[in-house]
Write a structure and sequence with these properties.
The complex is a heterodimer of chains A (320) and B (270). With 320 residues, chain A is α/β, with parallel strands linked by helices. Chain A is built from eleven helices and ten strands. Chain A has one domain: Alpha-Beta Barrel (TIM Barrel), CATH 3.20.20. In chain A, helix 7 packs parallel to helix 10. With 270 residues, chain B is an alpha/beta fold. Chain B is built from ten helices and eight strands. In chain B, strand 7, helix 8 and strand 8 form a beta-alpha-beta unit. Chain B is globular and about 45 Å long. Classes of the chains: A alpha/beta (320), B alpha/beta (270). Chains A and B meet through helix 6 of A and helix 10 of B.
Chain lengths: 320, 270
Protein backbone atom coordinates (compact mmCIF):
# COMPACT_ATOMS: atom_id res chain seq x y z
CA UNK A 1 0.00 0.00 0.00
CA UNK A 2 1.51 3.34 -0.99
CA UNK A 3 2.15 5.81 1.81
CA UNK A 4 -0.15 8.80 1.30
CA UNK A 5 1.49 12.18 0.81
CA UNK A 6 0.68 14.02 4.04
CA UNK A 7 2.54 17.18 3.02
CA UNK A 8 0.69 20.45 3.57
CA UNK A 9 -0.25 22.34 0.45
CA UNK A 10 0.55 25.99 1.20
CA UNK A 11 -1.33 28.73 -0.59
CA UNK A 12 0.94 31.58 0.47
CA UNK A 13 4.60 32.48 0.64
CA UNK A 14 6.79 34.96 2.47
CA UNK A 15 7.32 38.19 0.53
CA UNK A 16 10.85 38.65 -0.74
CA UNK A 17 12.18 42.04 0.43
CA UNK A 18 15.33 43.57 -1.02
CA UNK A 19 17.39 46.00 1.05
CA UNK A 20 19.96 48.33 -0.47
CA UNK A 21 20.30 49.81 -3.94
CA UNK A 22 23.28 49.61 -6.29
CA UNK A 23 24.38 52.42 -8.60
CA UNK A 24 22.20 51.05 -11.35
CA UNK A 25 19.23 51.17 -8.98
CA UNK A 26 19.76 54.74 -7.85
CA UNK A 27 21.90 54.07 -4.77
CA UNK A 28 25.58 53.57 -4.01
CA UNK A 29 25.61 50.10 -2.42
CA UNK A 30 28.04 47.47 -3.69
CA UNK A 31 25.26 44.91 -3.64
CA UNK A 32 21.77 44.35 -2.31
CA UNK A 33 20.46 41.77 0.16
CA UNK A 34 17.15 39.97 -0.37
CA UNK A 35 15.41 38.19 2.50
CA UNK A 36 12.21 36.13 2.62
CA UNK A 37 10.61 34.42 -0.37
CA UNK A 38 10.17 31.04 1.33
CA UNK A 39 7.10 29.00 0.39
CA UNK A 40 7.44 26.33 3.05
CA UNK A 41 8.56 25.62 6.61
CA UNK A 42 12.13 26.85 7.21
CA UNK A 43 14.84 24.49 5.98
CA UNK A 44 12.47 21.64 5.03
CA UNK A 45 13.31 21.35 1.36
CA UNK A 46 10.54 18.81 0.72
CA UNK A 47 8.03 21.33 2.05
CA UNK A 48 9.08 24.37 0.07
CA UNK A 49 11.91 26.43 -1.31
CA UNK A 50 14.15 28.83 0.60
CA UNK A 51 15.25 31.08 -2.26
CA UNK A 52 17.10 33.47 0.07
CA UNK A 53 18.97 32.15 3.09
CA UNK A 54 18.69 34.24 6.28
CA UNK A 55 20.96 37.29 6.25
CA UNK A 56 23.09 38.71 9.05
CA UNK A 57 23.51 42.35 10.05
CA UNK A 58 26.15 43.38 12.58
CA UNK A 59 25.49 46.17 15.06
CA UNK A 60 27.01 49.65 14.76
CA UNK A 61 26.11 52.28 17.37
CA UNK A 62 26.37 55.99 16.68
CA UNK A 63 28.19 56.51 19.98
CA UNK A 64 30.79 54.47 21.87
CA UNK A 65 28.97 51.90 24.03
CA UNK A 66 29.59 52.09 27.76
CA UNK A 67 28.38 48.66 28.83
CA UNK A 68 29.61 46.27 26.17
CA UNK A 69 31.64 43.46 27.80
CA UNK A 70 35.25 42.63 27.12
CA UNK A 71 34.76 40.07 24.30
CA UNK A 72 32.99 42.73 22.23
CA UNK A 73 35.41 45.48 23.23
CA UNK A 74 38.24 43.34 21.87
CA UNK A 75 36.56 43.27 18.45
CA UNK A 76 35.28 46.84 18.23
CA UNK A 77 36.93 48.88 21.02
CA UNK A 78 39.46 50.55 18.72
CA UNK A 79 36.78 51.79 16.26
CA UNK A 80 33.60 52.26 18.26
CA UNK A 81 34.03 55.96 18.87
CA UNK A 82 33.61 56.48 15.09
CA UNK A 83 30.50 54.94 13.44
CA UNK A 84 32.12 55.07 9.99
CA UNK A 85 35.23 53.22 11.18
CA UNK A 86 32.99 50.78 13.06
CA UNK A 87 30.96 50.16 9.90
CA UNK A 88 34.18 49.44 7.99
CA UNK A 89 35.12 46.90 10.66
CA UNK A 90 31.71 45.26 10.30
CA UNK A 91 32.25 44.95 6.58
CA UNK A 92 35.74 43.50 7.07
CA UNK A 93 34.23 40.91 9.39
CA UNK A 94 31.89 39.84 6.59
CA UNK A 95 28.44 41.10 7.61
CA UNK A 96 25.69 41.16 4.96
CA UNK A 97 24.32 44.46 6.29
CA UNK A 98 25.14 47.21 8.77
CA UNK A 99 22.60 47.59 11.60
CA UNK A 100 22.96 51.25 12.62
CA UNK A 101 21.37 52.36 15.89
CA UNK A 102 20.98 56.09 16.41
CA UNK A 103 20.89 55.77 20.20
CA UNK A 104 22.67 59.06 20.84
CA UNK A 105 19.53 60.88 19.67
CA UNK A 106 17.80 59.57 22.82
CA UNK A 107 16.94 62.49 25.15
CA UNK A 108 18.79 60.70 27.98
CA UNK A 109 21.71 59.43 25.90
CA UNK A 110 23.03 62.66 24.46
CA UNK A 111 19.92 64.04 22.75
CA UNK A 112 21.77 64.64 19.48
CA UNK A 113 19.86 66.45 16.80
CA UNK A 114 18.15 65.06 13.72
CA UNK A 115 20.77 66.82 11.58
CA UNK A 116 23.59 65.17 13.52
CA UNK A 117 21.89 61.78 13.04
CA UNK A 118 21.56 62.42 9.32
CA UNK A 119 25.25 63.29 9.22
CA UNK A 120 26.11 59.98 10.90
CA UNK A 121 24.04 58.12 8.34
CA UNK A 122 25.79 59.90 5.47
CA UNK A 123 29.18 59.08 7.01
CA UNK A 124 28.33 55.39 7.34
CA UNK A 125 26.92 55.27 3.80
CA UNK A 126 30.15 56.84 2.54
CA UNK A 127 32.37 54.50 4.58
CA UNK A 128 30.92 51.16 3.43
CA UNK A 129 28.83 49.93 0.53
CA UNK A 130 26.76 47.44 2.53
CA UNK A 131 22.97 47.89 2.74
CA UNK A 132 21.79 49.56 5.96
CA UNK A 133 19.22 48.87 8.63
CA UNK A 134 18.65 52.09 10.61
CA UNK A 135 16.85 52.38 13.95
CA UNK A 136 15.92 55.48 15.90
CA UNK A 137 16.19 55.76 19.67
CA UNK A 138 12.77 54.27 20.47
CA UNK A 139 11.39 57.52 21.88
CA UNK A 140 8.50 58.29 19.51
CA UNK A 141 8.57 62.10 19.85
CA UNK A 142 12.27 62.17 19.05
CA UNK A 143 12.16 59.53 16.33
CA UNK A 144 9.48 61.56 14.56
CA UNK A 145 12.00 64.38 14.24
CA UNK A 146 15.03 62.24 13.48
CA UNK A 147 13.79 59.53 11.13
CA UNK A 148 12.42 61.77 8.35
CA UNK A 149 15.81 63.54 8.19
CA UNK A 150 17.57 60.21 8.20
CA UNK A 151 15.29 58.86 5.48
CA UNK A 152 16.02 61.93 3.38
CA UNK A 153 19.79 61.68 3.95
CA UNK A 154 19.70 58.07 2.76
CA UNK A 155 17.38 58.74 -0.17
CA UNK A 156 17.83 56.21 -2.95
CA UNK A 157 19.75 53.74 -0.78
CA UNK A 158 16.69 51.56 -0.05
CA UNK A 159 17.46 51.16 3.64
CA UNK A 160 15.36 49.28 6.17
CA UNK A 161 13.99 51.77 8.73
CA UNK A 162 12.73 50.88 12.21
CA UNK A 163 10.29 50.74 13.76
CA UNK A 164 6.59 51.50 13.24
CA UNK A 165 4.28 50.54 16.12
CA UNK A 166 0.52 50.39 16.66
CA UNK A 167 0.48 53.94 18.03
CA UNK A 168 3.41 55.49 16.16
CA UNK A 169 3.50 54.63 12.51
CA UNK A 170 2.34 57.57 10.39
CA UNK A 171 5.53 59.66 10.35
CA UNK A 172 7.87 56.75 9.80
CA UNK A 173 5.68 55.15 7.12
CA UNK A 174 5.40 58.49 5.32
CA UNK A 175 9.17 59.07 5.50
CA UNK A 176 9.95 55.54 4.31
CA UNK A 177 7.53 55.88 1.43
CA UNK A 178 8.62 59.38 0.41
CA UNK A 179 12.30 58.44 0.26
CA UNK A 180 11.76 54.87 -0.96
CA UNK A 181 12.94 52.81 1.99
CA UNK A 182 11.69 49.59 3.50
CA UNK A 183 9.95 49.65 6.87
CA UNK A 184 10.08 47.56 10.07
CA UNK A 185 6.78 47.05 11.91
CA UNK A 186 7.03 46.24 15.60
CA UNK A 187 4.62 44.56 18.01
CA UNK A 188 6.24 43.19 21.16
CA UNK A 189 5.70 39.43 21.19
CA UNK A 190 2.06 39.77 20.09
CA UNK A 191 1.07 38.25 16.78
CA UNK A 192 -2.39 39.83 16.73
CA UNK A 193 -0.91 43.29 17.24
CA UNK A 194 1.69 42.49 14.63
CA UNK A 195 -1.06 41.95 12.08
CA UNK A 196 -2.84 45.07 13.30
CA UNK A 197 0.26 47.26 12.80
CA UNK A 198 0.57 45.95 9.27
CA UNK A 199 -3.09 46.82 8.62
CA UNK A 200 -2.56 50.34 9.96
CA UNK A 201 0.64 50.90 8.01
CA UNK A 202 -0.93 49.51 4.85
CA UNK A 203 -3.89 51.86 5.38
CA UNK A 204 -1.54 54.82 5.00
CA UNK A 205 -0.77 53.57 1.49
CA UNK A 206 2.53 51.90 2.38
CA UNK A 207 2.97 48.66 0.40
CA UNK A 208 2.66 45.42 2.40
CA UNK A 209 5.46 44.04 0.26
CA UNK A 210 7.94 46.61 1.61
CA UNK A 211 7.49 45.65 5.28
CA UNK A 212 9.69 43.54 7.56
CA UNK A 213 8.18 42.31 10.84
CA UNK A 214 10.06 42.74 14.10
CA UNK A 215 8.31 40.55 16.70
CA UNK A 216 10.91 41.67 19.27
CA UNK A 217 13.40 39.13 20.55
CA UNK A 218 14.24 37.27 23.73
CA UNK A 219 17.45 35.38 24.42
CA UNK A 220 17.93 31.75 25.31
CA UNK A 221 16.80 31.37 28.93
CA UNK A 222 14.94 34.69 28.88
CA UNK A 223 11.72 33.83 27.08
CA UNK A 224 13.10 32.83 23.68
CA UNK A 225 10.38 30.19 23.31
CA UNK A 226 7.68 32.89 23.33
CA UNK A 227 9.31 34.64 20.42
CA UNK A 228 9.88 31.31 18.71
CA UNK A 229 6.19 30.50 18.97
CA UNK A 230 5.21 33.93 17.62
CA UNK A 231 7.57 33.45 14.69
CA UNK A 232 6.20 30.02 13.99
CA UNK A 233 2.56 31.12 14.08
CA UNK A 234 3.32 34.10 11.87
CA UNK A 235 5.09 31.90 9.35
CA UNK A 236 2.21 29.40 9.28
CA UNK A 237 -0.23 32.28 8.73
CA UNK A 238 1.92 33.57 5.86
CA UNK A 239 2.09 30.14 4.26
CA UNK A 240 -1.67 29.75 4.69
CA UNK A 241 -2.18 32.80 2.52
CA UNK A 242 -2.49 35.65 5.04
CA UNK A 243 -1.02 38.56 3.07
CA UNK A 244 -0.94 40.72 6.18
CA UNK A 245 1.50 38.28 7.80
CA UNK A 246 3.51 37.43 4.69
CA UNK A 247 6.39 39.74 5.61
CA UNK A 248 9.88 38.44 6.40
CA UNK A 249 11.20 38.97 9.93
CA UNK A 250 14.11 40.71 11.64
CA UNK A 251 15.34 39.50 15.04
CA UNK A 252 17.57 41.53 17.36
CA UNK A 253 19.61 38.63 18.67
CA UNK A 254 22.90 40.32 19.62
CA UNK A 255 21.38 42.96 21.87
CA UNK A 256 19.27 40.43 23.77
CA UNK A 257 21.91 37.69 24.03
CA UNK A 258 24.51 40.06 25.42
CA UNK A 259 22.10 41.21 28.15
CA UNK A 260 22.00 37.66 29.53
CA UNK A 261 24.05 37.22 32.67
CA UNK A 262 25.44 33.99 31.23
CA UNK A 263 27.03 36.09 28.50
CA UNK A 264 28.44 38.83 30.77
CA UNK A 265 29.06 37.64 34.30
CA UNK A 266 32.61 37.21 35.58
CA UNK A 267 33.80 35.89 38.94
CA UNK A 268 31.75 34.04 41.54
CA UNK A 269 29.49 31.28 40.21
CA UNK A 270 30.24 32.38 36.68
CA UNK A 271 33.76 30.98 36.99
CA UNK A 272 32.27 27.52 36.53
CA UNK A 273 30.42 28.47 33.35
CA UNK A 274 33.44 28.43 31.12
CA UNK A 275 35.64 31.19 29.71
CA UNK A 276 33.98 34.58 29.34
CA UNK A 277 35.30 34.95 25.78
CA UNK A 278 33.25 31.92 24.69
CA UNK A 279 30.02 32.41 26.60
CA UNK A 280 28.72 35.54 24.89
CA UNK A 281 29.29 34.34 21.32
CA UNK A 282 27.81 30.96 22.28
CA UNK A 283 24.70 32.54 23.82
CA UNK A 284 24.25 34.70 20.76
CA UNK A 285 24.79 31.81 18.34
CA UNK A 286 22.40 29.47 20.19
CA UNK A 287 19.67 32.10 20.35
CA UNK A 288 20.14 32.94 16.68
CA UNK A 289 20.19 29.38 15.37
CA UNK A 290 17.11 28.44 17.40
CA UNK A 291 15.13 31.39 16.06
CA UNK A 292 16.16 30.55 12.49
CA UNK A 293 14.05 27.40 12.77
CA UNK A 294 10.97 29.41 13.66
CA UNK A 295 11.24 31.65 10.62
CA UNK A 296 13.82 34.41 11.23
CA UNK A 297 14.96 36.00 7.96
CA UNK A 298 17.36 38.70 9.16
CA UNK A 299 19.42 38.31 12.33
CA UNK A 300 21.11 41.27 13.99
CA UNK A 301 24.23 40.00 15.74
CA UNK A 302 27.30 41.45 17.47
CA UNK A 303 30.17 38.99 17.74
CA UNK A 304 31.92 37.67 14.61
CA UNK A 305 32.20 34.21 16.14
CA UNK A 306 28.45 34.11 16.65
CA UNK A 307 28.02 35.16 13.01
CA UNK A 308 30.39 32.39 11.87
CA UNK A 309 28.53 29.79 13.95
CA UNK A 310 25.10 30.89 12.69
CA UNK A 311 26.31 30.90 9.07
CA UNK A 312 27.77 27.44 9.53
CA UNK A 313 24.42 26.21 10.82
CA UNK A 314 22.54 27.80 7.93
CA UNK A 315 24.94 26.20 5.46
CA UNK A 316 24.40 22.78 7.00
CA UNK A 317 20.64 23.23 7.06
CA UNK A 318 20.33 24.26 3.42
CA UNK A 319 22.77 21.71 2.03
CA UNK A 320 21.89 18.73 4.23
CA UNK B 1 -16.00 30.59 3.09
CA UNK B 2 -16.66 30.67 -0.63
CA UNK B 3 -19.37 33.26 -1.21
CA UNK B 4 -21.84 32.44 -3.96
CA UNK B 5 -23.92 35.51 -4.76
CA UNK B 6 -27.65 34.73 -4.80
CA UNK B 7 -28.68 38.07 -6.23
CA UNK B 8 -28.63 37.36 -9.99
CA UNK B 9 -31.82 35.33 -9.74
CA UNK B 10 -35.04 35.71 -11.71
CA UNK B 11 -36.99 35.23 -8.49
CA UNK B 12 -36.06 38.86 -7.81
CA UNK B 13 -38.41 41.05 -9.76
CA UNK B 14 -35.70 43.48 -10.97
CA UNK B 15 -33.62 40.62 -12.39
CA UNK B 16 -36.64 38.92 -13.97
CA UNK B 17 -37.57 42.12 -15.78
CA UNK B 18 -33.96 42.73 -16.78
CA UNK B 19 -33.74 39.26 -18.31
CA UNK B 20 -36.97 39.73 -20.23
CA UNK B 21 -35.92 43.14 -21.52
CA UNK B 22 -32.25 42.17 -21.93
CA UNK B 23 -31.41 45.18 -19.76
CA UNK B 24 -27.68 44.74 -19.15
CA UNK B 25 -27.29 47.69 -16.83
CA UNK B 26 -29.39 46.16 -14.03
CA UNK B 27 -27.35 42.95 -14.12
CA UNK B 28 -24.02 44.77 -14.32
CA UNK B 29 -24.88 47.02 -11.36
CA UNK B 30 -26.02 44.09 -9.22
CA UNK B 31 -22.92 42.11 -10.13
CA UNK B 32 -20.65 45.00 -9.15
CA UNK B 33 -22.52 45.41 -5.86
CA UNK B 34 -22.18 41.71 -5.06
CA UNK B 35 -18.48 41.67 -5.96
CA UNK B 36 -17.89 44.71 -3.77
CA UNK B 37 -19.50 42.76 -0.92
CA UNK B 38 -17.07 39.89 -1.39
CA UNK B 39 -18.77 37.47 -3.79
CA UNK B 40 -16.42 34.75 -5.07
CA UNK B 41 -18.87 32.99 -7.39
CA UNK B 42 -21.86 34.50 -9.20
CA UNK B 43 -24.84 32.16 -9.05
CA UNK B 44 -27.11 32.69 -12.07
CA UNK B 45 -30.76 31.67 -12.04
CA UNK B 46 -33.09 32.88 -14.77
CA UNK B 47 -36.19 32.19 -12.69
CA UNK B 48 -39.58 31.82 -14.34
CA UNK B 49 -39.18 33.31 -17.81
CA UNK B 50 -41.28 33.67 -20.90
CA UNK B 51 -38.26 33.90 -23.19
CA UNK B 52 -36.05 31.05 -24.46
CA UNK B 53 -34.39 29.82 -21.24
CA UNK B 54 -31.17 28.70 -22.95
CA UNK B 55 -30.65 32.05 -24.63
CA UNK B 56 -31.52 33.83 -21.40
CA UNK B 57 -28.90 31.81 -19.50
CA UNK B 58 -26.14 32.45 -22.03
CA UNK B 59 -27.02 36.15 -22.14
CA UNK B 60 -26.92 36.35 -18.34
CA UNK B 61 -23.56 34.55 -18.15
CA UNK B 62 -21.99 36.76 -20.82
CA UNK B 63 -23.36 39.89 -19.24
CA UNK B 64 -21.99 39.05 -15.79
CA UNK B 65 -18.68 38.04 -17.36
CA UNK B 66 -18.33 41.56 -18.77
CA UNK B 67 -17.43 42.81 -15.28
CA UNK B 68 -15.73 39.79 -13.71
CA UNK B 69 -13.61 36.74 -14.42
CA UNK B 70 -14.95 35.06 -11.29
CA UNK B 71 -16.59 31.63 -11.50
CA UNK B 72 -20.26 31.35 -12.48
CA UNK B 73 -22.72 28.91 -10.98
CA UNK B 74 -25.51 27.83 -13.35
CA UNK B 75 -28.58 27.40 -11.21
CA UNK B 76 -31.59 25.40 -12.31
CA UNK B 77 -33.66 22.55 -10.89
CA UNK B 78 -34.25 21.31 -14.45
CA UNK B 79 -31.64 18.73 -15.41
CA UNK B 80 -32.63 18.81 -19.08
CA UNK B 81 -32.14 22.55 -19.21
CA UNK B 82 -28.69 22.25 -17.58
CA UNK B 83 -27.75 19.57 -20.13
CA UNK B 84 -28.27 22.14 -22.88
CA UNK B 85 -27.10 25.27 -21.09
CA UNK B 86 -23.80 24.10 -19.60
CA UNK B 87 -22.09 23.23 -22.94
CA UNK B 88 -23.33 26.50 -24.44
CA UNK B 89 -21.96 28.61 -21.59
CA UNK B 90 -18.73 26.60 -21.64
CA UNK B 91 -18.40 27.36 -25.35
CA UNK B 92 -19.15 31.05 -24.86
CA UNK B 93 -16.77 31.38 -21.88
CA UNK B 94 -14.08 28.72 -22.40
CA UNK B 95 -11.80 29.86 -19.54
CA UNK B 96 -14.35 30.68 -16.85
CA UNK B 97 -14.74 28.32 -13.93
CA UNK B 98 -18.29 26.97 -13.80
CA UNK B 99 -20.36 25.18 -11.17
CA UNK B 100 -23.51 23.19 -11.94
CA UNK B 101 -26.23 24.01 -9.41
CA UNK B 102 -27.62 21.45 -8.77
CA UNK B 103 -28.12 17.70 -8.99
CA UNK B 104 -29.86 15.28 -6.63
CA UNK B 105 -28.47 11.94 -5.52
CA UNK B 106 -31.14 10.10 -7.55
CA UNK B 107 -29.19 7.77 -9.91
CA UNK B 108 -30.86 9.00 -13.11
CA UNK B 109 -29.87 12.60 -12.30
CA UNK B 110 -26.33 11.75 -11.21
CA UNK B 111 -25.85 9.74 -14.40
CA UNK B 112 -26.77 12.75 -16.50
CA UNK B 113 -25.25 15.70 -14.66
CA UNK B 114 -22.00 14.39 -13.16
CA UNK B 115 -20.68 13.35 -16.61
CA UNK B 116 -21.80 16.79 -17.82
CA UNK B 117 -19.61 18.35 -15.11
CA UNK B 118 -16.63 16.17 -16.06
CA UNK B 119 -16.98 16.90 -19.78
CA UNK B 120 -17.30 20.63 -19.28
CA UNK B 121 -14.69 20.95 -16.51
CA UNK B 122 -17.16 22.33 -13.96
CA UNK B 123 -17.80 21.87 -10.27
CA UNK B 124 -21.17 20.51 -9.19
CA UNK B 125 -23.54 20.93 -6.27
CA UNK B 126 -25.08 17.69 -5.02
CA UNK B 127 -28.29 17.83 -3.02
CA UNK B 128 -28.71 15.33 -0.19
CA UNK B 129 -32.00 14.05 -1.56
CA UNK B 130 -33.01 11.40 -4.05
CA UNK B 131 -36.13 10.27 -5.93
CA UNK B 132 -37.95 10.00 -2.60
CA UNK B 133 -37.64 13.71 -1.89
CA UNK B 134 -36.05 15.74 0.90
CA UNK B 135 -35.12 13.50 3.84
CA UNK B 136 -36.69 14.29 7.21
CA UNK B 137 -33.64 13.11 9.12
CA UNK B 138 -29.86 13.25 9.31
CA UNK B 139 -29.15 9.65 8.27
CA UNK B 140 -30.75 9.85 4.85
CA UNK B 141 -28.98 13.15 4.18
CA UNK B 142 -25.65 11.51 4.96
CA UNK B 143 -26.50 8.52 2.78
CA UNK B 144 -27.38 10.77 -0.18
CA UNK B 145 -24.37 13.03 0.34
CA UNK B 146 -21.99 10.08 0.54
CA UNK B 147 -23.54 8.46 -2.55
CA UNK B 148 -23.22 11.68 -4.53
CA UNK B 149 -19.64 12.29 -3.46
CA UNK B 150 -18.58 8.73 -4.22
CA UNK B 151 -20.12 8.84 -7.71
CA UNK B 152 -18.54 12.23 -8.45
CA UNK B 153 -15.07 11.08 -7.37
CA UNK B 154 -15.44 7.82 -9.33
CA UNK B 155 -16.15 9.79 -12.47
CA UNK B 156 -13.09 11.98 -11.96
CA UNK B 157 -14.08 15.11 -10.06
CA UNK B 158 -11.89 16.30 -7.16
CA UNK B 159 -13.35 16.87 -3.65
CA UNK B 160 -12.75 20.62 -4.11
CA UNK B 161 -15.18 20.66 -7.03
CA UNK B 162 -17.96 18.74 -5.29
CA UNK B 163 -20.33 20.81 -3.16
CA UNK B 164 -22.70 18.89 -0.90
CA UNK B 165 -25.90 20.80 -0.10
CA UNK B 166 -27.81 19.37 2.90
CA UNK B 167 -30.95 21.30 1.82
CA UNK B 168 -32.19 24.17 3.94
CA UNK B 169 -35.94 24.48 4.55
CA UNK B 170 -37.86 27.43 6.03
CA UNK B 171 -37.90 27.56 9.81
CA UNK B 172 -41.64 28.16 10.01
CA UNK B 173 -42.44 25.18 7.76
CA UNK B 174 -39.92 22.60 9.00
CA UNK B 175 -38.51 23.53 12.39
CA UNK B 176 -36.47 20.34 12.94
CA UNK B 177 -34.76 20.37 9.59
CA UNK B 178 -32.24 23.11 10.37
CA UNK B 179 -30.30 21.07 12.90
CA UNK B 180 -30.59 18.02 10.66
CA UNK B 181 -28.72 19.97 8.00
CA UNK B 182 -26.10 21.19 10.49
CA UNK B 183 -25.55 17.67 11.79
CA UNK B 184 -25.32 16.20 8.28
CA UNK B 185 -22.51 18.61 7.43
CA UNK B 186 -20.71 17.86 10.68
CA UNK B 187 -20.80 14.10 10.14
CA UNK B 188 -19.99 14.17 6.43
CA UNK B 189 -17.01 16.42 7.17
CA UNK B 190 -15.68 13.93 9.72
CA UNK B 191 -15.90 10.80 7.57
CA UNK B 192 -14.51 12.21 4.33
CA UNK B 193 -10.80 13.04 4.11
CA UNK B 194 -10.16 15.14 2.18
CA UNK B 195 -13.68 16.52 2.63
CA UNK B 196 -15.80 17.93 -0.20
CA UNK B 197 -17.19 21.46 -0.03
CA UNK B 198 -20.39 22.01 1.92
CA UNK B 199 -22.83 24.60 0.64
CA UNK B 200 -26.30 25.87 1.53
CA UNK B 201 -28.87 28.16 -0.03
CA UNK B 202 -28.98 30.19 3.17
CA UNK B 203 -31.97 32.45 2.71
CA UNK B 204 -34.34 29.47 2.40
CA UNK B 205 -34.25 29.28 6.18
CA UNK B 206 -35.90 32.67 6.62
CA UNK B 207 -38.43 32.71 3.79
CA UNK B 208 -41.44 34.79 4.78
CA UNK B 209 -39.96 35.55 8.19
CA UNK B 210 -40.00 39.03 9.68
CA UNK B 211 -36.42 38.96 11.00
CA UNK B 212 -35.03 37.21 7.96
CA UNK B 213 -31.59 38.82 8.05
CA UNK B 214 -31.05 37.97 11.71
CA UNK B 215 -32.12 34.38 11.06
CA UNK B 216 -29.79 34.16 8.06
CA UNK B 217 -26.71 35.36 9.87
CA UNK B 218 -27.32 33.36 13.06
CA UNK B 219 -27.86 30.19 11.05
CA UNK B 220 -24.79 30.86 8.89
CA UNK B 221 -22.62 31.01 12.01
CA UNK B 222 -24.03 27.68 13.23
CA UNK B 223 -23.40 26.07 9.86
CA UNK B 224 -19.85 27.41 9.69
CA UNK B 225 -19.10 25.91 13.09
CA UNK B 226 -20.26 22.53 11.73
CA UNK B 227 -17.94 22.72 8.71
CA UNK B 228 -19.74 24.72 6.03
CA UNK B 229 -17.29 25.95 3.35
CA UNK B 230 -19.58 27.81 0.92
CA UNK B 231 -22.99 29.49 0.91
CA UNK B 232 -25.31 31.12 -1.59
CA UNK B 233 -26.05 34.48 0.01
CA UNK B 234 -26.61 38.16 -0.61
CA UNK B 235 -23.04 39.43 -0.30
CA UNK B 236 -24.30 43.01 -0.07
CA UNK B 237 -25.74 42.17 3.37
CA UNK B 238 -22.84 43.62 5.37
CA UNK B 239 -24.11 42.38 8.75
CA UNK B 240 -24.19 38.87 7.32
CA UNK B 241 -20.67 39.16 5.92
CA UNK B 242 -19.38 40.60 9.21
CA UNK B 243 -20.94 37.68 11.14
CA UNK B 244 -19.34 35.25 8.71
CA UNK B 245 -15.89 36.82 9.09
CA UNK B 246 -16.25 36.89 12.87
CA UNK B 247 -17.23 33.22 12.95
CA UNK B 248 -14.24 32.35 10.77
CA UNK B 249 -11.91 34.23 13.11
CA UNK B 250 -13.36 32.40 16.11
CA UNK B 251 -12.99 29.09 14.25
CA UNK B 252 -9.30 29.86 13.76
CA UNK B 253 -9.54 30.28 9.98
CA UNK B 254 -7.96 33.75 10.12
CA UNK B 255 -5.40 35.20 12.49
CA UNK B 256 -7.11 37.73 14.76
CA UNK B 257 -6.26 41.42 14.67
CA UNK B 258 -8.36 44.27 16.06
CA UNK B 259 -9.27 45.29 12.52
CA UNK B 260 -10.01 41.72 11.44
CA UNK B 261 -12.94 42.71 9.22
CA UNK B 262 -10.78 45.21 7.39
CA UNK B 263 -8.04 42.57 7.21
CA UNK B 264 -10.45 40.15 5.52
CA UNK B 265 -11.37 42.81 2.97
CA UNK B 266 -7.74 43.75 2.33
CA UNK B 267 -6.96 40.10 1.88
CA UNK B 268 -9.65 39.90 -0.82
CA UNK B 269 -8.58 43.16 -2.43
CA UNK B 270 -11.88 44.89 -1.57
Amino acid sequence: MPIPDAKEKWSGRVNPVTIGATKGEGGTRGRTVTIGGADGIPFLDFDGQTPHVPAIALDVLDVAPTEWPQPLAEVYGDVWSDPAAWARRVKELGADLVNLRLISTHPDEGDRSADAAAETVRAVLAAVDLPLVIWGCDVPEKDQLVMPKVAEAAQGENCLLGAATETEYRTLAAAAQAYKHKLITLAPCDINKSKQVNILVSDTGFPLTDIVIYPTTAALGYGMEYVYSILERGRLAALSGDRLMAQPTILDVGYEAWRAKEARAVGGDAEAWGPIEDRGPAWEALTGTALLQGGADLLVLRHPRAMAAVRNTIRQLVTA
Amino acid sequence: MIIFSERINGMYRDVRTAIQERNKQVVLDLTREQLAGGADVMDLNIGPTKTDPIKAFVWLAQTVHEVTDKPLSLDSAKANLLLEVVPKVRQALPDTKLVINSCTAAPEYMDKLIPLAVENRTGIIGLTMDQEGVPGNVEKRIECGAAFLMRALELGLTPDDVYIDPIILPIHAAPKQQMNAVEAIRQLAIVNDPPPQFIVGLSNVSQKCLFHKLLNRTFLVMLLAAGLTAAIIDSADTDLIDAMITAEVLLGKHLYSDDYIKAWKMQKGL
